[in-house]
Known about the structure:
Potassium channel tetramerisation-type BTB domain-containing protein; single chain; about 425 residues; about 30% helix; alpha+beta; elongated; T1-type_BTB; SKP1/BTB/POZ_sf; Potassium Channel Kv1.1, Chain A
Amino acid sequence: xxxxxxxxxxxxxxxxxxxxxxxxxxxxxxxxxxxxxxxxxxxxxxxxxxxxxxxxxxxxxxxxxxxxxxxxxxxxxxxxxxxxxxxxxxxxxxxxxxxxxxxxxxxxxxxxxxxxxxxxxxxxxxxxxxxxxxxxxxxxxxxxxxxxxxxxxxxxxxxxxxxxxxxxxxxxxxxxxxxxxxxxxxxxxxxxxxxxxxxxxxxxxxxxxxxxxxxxxxxxxxxxxxxxxxxxxxxxxxxxxxxxxxxxxxxxxxxxxxxxxxxxxxxxxxxxxxxxxxxxxxxxxxxxxxxxxxxxxxxxxxxxxxxxxxxxxxxxxxxxxxxxxxxxxxxxxxxxxxxxxxxxxxxxxxxxxxxxxxxxxxxxxxxxxxxxxxxxxxxxxxxxxxxxxxxxxxxxxxxxxxxxxxxxxxxxxxxxxxxxxxxxxx
Length: 426
């Protein structure tokens, strides 16, 4: 026996029925092998319709209206006209009822169906997809609503343009090349069951499925993130959407970039983003310390460079771009750094650069000119003044002053030679 809840309209029920047909008169409708007898009250409850237009004609009052359709589907319509809520058991039953109610012109039933859960077949398994998932900002329009809208429009256009004697055949949305198990987990997560996510690999599979079905709000809920003790939001660079970024800085006031996950009702927080060597080559992110200019910078190349440009393109217009690379000034105040498995002291950068009186990080024009000098120095034959540290994992803030931007290190893990040290990152 099906345990699906019955379909019910969300609008307030109106017991008054217009007298389109005499309420006390009984009319006969033959559907396939079964005869249905309905009162004028029942037929008028969802009118005007194919039925009321037929029986309103005086010559048709005593006739039996015949349809060569499935009487099991018409049973649902029969119950609806009698005032009962109806229960739909599977995807084909839903589509057939949907198709017939449009053909018969039952507008109230159309509205009820359009407000209810949808059905789809994913990987040979039928799913009931709740409106609480498919009809909220970020999740709509999606794969299923687009399919059902097209089904509705195509049905109406065909019936009206060709004056068809019966509705055209329709099939429910079917996705054979996706996993039914993953879709089940996706529905469970949408209901608040966060424990359904088994590990990071499983999370990535669910995110991929959410993107496929265009559940963008659900995708944001699935993305791994955490809040720091100071209230910053920490995300992997690959999980950041440009839509969620906010630059609160001005030309006079330097501030960190803020972030809010799109479609999620939460406040903007300072953004800390993570870059991992498992996502990019280890040589694509380097700390470069120039003893001549006394400037610490970070050089980002190739795929990592492309990713940062893609995410932060509206906020790094003044950053030096050299072919396929980005070069940022970088600050280290209150940061934690591990190099070759060893935790560095808070003043390690100034010690390596030979700076006795460190100054506060800024993005002045003077420092920007020095970056240009450093870019040229890296190609000189004298490499003794350049120290390069490859970063395997790193946490950063993007700090802006108007259109000027620099990176501020939060936690770094790097090496000047091979290192197997692991630290607690995202």
